[in-house]
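Curious: why this fold?
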Amino acid sequence: MLQRVPGELGEVAGSLVRLEIHNEGSRLLVLTGLRRVAGLTELQLQDCHLERLPSALLALTSLRTLDLQHNSLRTLEELLGLAHLRRLSCLRLAHNRVLALPASVGVLRALELLDLGYNQLQSLPPFKGLKCTCGNTEIGPTERT
């Protein structure tokens, strides 16, 4: 299991567009190596025991798909910081412990799919043109204010 994103990723950074890390529940502690692969368009960090959105994501401006399923996310306050990920169209956050979705998710203008299935959400803010899934239920497209 990995405890950190390997710094050696920088050696293939120019050609790497997809990165998958499935850590089988072991905590991924250091994610700063992600900053070296700014050309990524798809990132999966599944089962890495993440509790917050990693700040290293801010460097991934080409990202279109972000998959953080099967982690320990509780809060999504950092979503506002992802506003400059202008190409992000798919955000998968299923199988976490998210209690509330902040209205700041609205800053993700290119977002088309938001998967929140199997979390502990009480309600969702309104969105326009966004396909949102919660468990086996699809919500949307709904109104975005």
